[in-house]
Design brief:
The protein has about 180 residues and is mainly α. It has 3 domains: about 15-70, no CATH class; about 70-100; about 105-175. Helices cover about 70% and strands about 5% of the residues. It has helices at about 15-25, 25-35, 50-70, 70-100, 105-125, 125-135, 140-160, 165-175, and strands at about 15, 40, 45-50. It has a 3-stranded antiparallel beta sheet. A hairpin with a 2-residue loop joins strand 2 and strand 3. Helix 5 packs antiparallel against helix 7 and helix 6 (about 125-135) runs antiparallel to helix 7. The radius of gyration is 42 Å and the shape is rod-shaped.
Length: about 180
């Protein structure tokens, strides 16, 4: 009995222009696909349809595998959405608390303390003079000692606004 040998057929080779025309795409789009060149004939690159089909199928598989097989991406997107929603809710709650005047900014506290210090300073500055008027028989030495203590108090009050940030950090640290 005679054996029948299968004939090997050479693949049909197409140049880029003909291949793009048959696929209905531009040559620039085809270049982005990075289809392997089957052979070259002079300056002309020749491709097989099987290589083009394998390239496109592989591209689609990689797209689907990257989203389906990578649950971290899906979880990451869901987690990021959760974080964004939570941050928006926290921001709205803080805004509501500000409107109800339950919380204020640190900058506002600094402003208020500076204003209070500015009002206290002249009162403290006049204490030794008032005491001298009320009690004329107080010695100058006692007045000078009182004046020194008042100046210390004035300095403490004037620095209070500058230390509000440190005090806030200390408070938050002790609350934890």
């Amino acid at each position: 009995m005679a054996q029948i040998k299968a004939q090997k057929t050479e693949p049909l080779l197409l140049n880029k222009t003909d291949l793009c025309r048959s696929l209905g795409i531009s040559t620039q789009a085809f270049d982005k696909w990075t289809v392997p060149i089957h052979s070259k004939k002079g300056r002309e690159c020749l491709y097989t349809m099987s290589d083009v089909v394998a390239n496109r199928v592989g591209n689609e598989r990689s797209k689907h595998e990257s989203t389906a097989d990578d649950p971290d991406k899906q979880n990451n997107i869901d987690y990021e959405r959760y974080r964004l929603t939570k941050a928006q809710a926290d921001g709205q709650e803080l805004k509501n608390e500000k409107e109800r005047k339950e919380v204020v900014d640190v900058d506002f506290n600094i402003f208020v303390l500076n204003r209070i210090a500015a009002q206290i300073a002249p009162v403290l500055d006049q204490i030794h003079i008032r005491m001298k008027r009320k009690f004329p028989d107080i010695s100058d030495k006692l007045i000078e000692a009182m004046k020194a203590e008042v100046i210390k108090s004035q300095n403490t009050v004037s620095k209070l606004a500058d230390t509000i940030g440190d005090l806030l950090d200390e408070y938050i640290g002790s609350a934890d």
